[in-house]
Amino acid sequence: MLFRTEITIPRPSFEIEPQDRIFFVGSCFAENVGRRFVQNKFKATVNPYGTMYNPASVLHTIEHTVADGTIPERGVDVAVITLGTNHVYILKETGEIVDNCRKRPQRLFREEELSVGQCRDYLLRAILLLRERNPDTKVILTVSPIRYAKYGYHLSQLSKATLLLAAEAVSREEEKTEYFPAYEIMNDELRDYRFYSPDMLHPSDQAVDYIYERFSETFFSAQTHQMQEEWRPIQAALSHRPFNPDSAEYKSFLAKAQADAAAFEKKWGGG
User: Fold this and answer.
1) HSE-up of 25 (CA within 13 Å, CB side)?
2) Using one digit for the tens of pLDDT, what is the confidence trace for 20-70?
3) Cβ neighbourhood burial of 81 (10 Å; 0-12, 13-18, 19+)
4) Using an 8 Å Cβ cutoff, are 212 and 142 in contact?
5) What's CA 20's distance to the chain center, in Å?
6) How many other CB atoms are found less than 10 A from the CB of residue 60?
7) How far apart are CA 140 and CA 144, in angstroms?
8) Is the pLDDT of residue 1 over 70?
9) What is the pLDDT of residue 270?
10) What whole-number distance in Å separates Cα of residue 265 and Cα of residue 70?
């Protein structure tokens, strides 16, 4: 008997290689997944201007990072864009979409919802900007599974539906652009509150680990899987917390782990 359905993920048009420069931008779900890439020694940059939830703010982050050199002249190899909502806040005085209200009075802003077409256009502009630096930049679009209780759950679902339609349109239009179903995995494969944090809105660490695992199965090349297999025992050794850190045995153990880490860096050139 089957007690759950598993999301079928089509084979993507590209793979992530060990030396790829990877740029994560978007919601706090991008933070969670991106942090695992950093921990696993990828050359990953994660939300340098903080979490960004809507497509317009994602574009603004990419504009800033190109201007300030965070994204270098040679660009990035892979960009992972995670969308959280189609809701934006507009400063009434200027009519501009703001990325952060900076605790200013709410009366200074109005809230609007981007249409599918507007979300698509912001995403296309963001991808075009990335590919001005590196025409071979590969893009992975995801929609965050985190629900927004402040909208009410029906409006939250409508917001996600808008993002899903926009992501689908862009992935169909643009080459080397793939959609990864993080939203669907959370809401179908992991359809149980035991996979949520205590707020019942955010995925638990276990859920994020599982989605990261499905992501790696989908996008990692054979070499990247090998790199991860070699890093796993080194990471475990470096994370070990001994009962007696001053013992000769632990010092010898730590010295070996550090030597292994140095050899790994030399071989793979991780971040």
Assistant:
1) 27
2) 999 999 998 889 999 999 999 999 999 999 999 999 999 999 999 999 999
3) buried
4) no
5) 15
6) 20
7) 13
8) no
9) 53
10) 22
